[in-house]
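look at this fold:
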Amino acid sequence: MQRRELCAWLGTGLFSTLGARAAWAFSLTEGDAASGVRAALERGAQAALTNLGRTDGFLGNPQVKIELPGGLKDAARLLRTTGQGKRLDDLVTAMNRAAEQAVPEARQLLVSTVRNISVEDAVRIVRGGDNAVTSFFEEKTRSPLMERFLPIVTKATERQSLAEKYNAVAGRAAGFGLVRKEDANLQSYVTDKALDGLYFMIGEEEKKIRKDPIGTGSAILKKVFG
């Protein structure tokens, strides 16, 4: 192919691509953006709730499993050599079970957040980065969900005799800088990690939508995120 012909061919391809993007931008209305973002939020929330709000939702998933924090996790290795392995395993299991019990409580707030999203927020999310959907969810729901989760987590962990032992040991460890102060309370620590897991799973679903919007089978997701 001659140089002039090659340049002409490349130029045609470039303008064709730019033209397609421009056409997409003009064809995407604010209403489309709102509908697409609502669909993405709903899909992400449902996936997270389904995967986490069940037995082994946290415990059986290495990506969100709640482990002992900081210095206590390191100390656990030594404690296992003294025959404390079962107690440590029981504590980790109890923490994850508490998170699994708390997650379904998020459904009502997440659904409400999806329904009430403004057109302005939707447009901002569409124009945002790869985790804009997840970041919006976390911004709007983390604080109120912390309040809703904490009583459930507290009730679940108080059934375990290890809860008081954890708080006592972690409290002393925090005094020496081995554990962050905010992690020195079992209930607060588990609640925070449960929310981390929730938003992580929403984020994983967002990645799938952005990577393959056609594969979702949703026309509006294909239009907005395609």
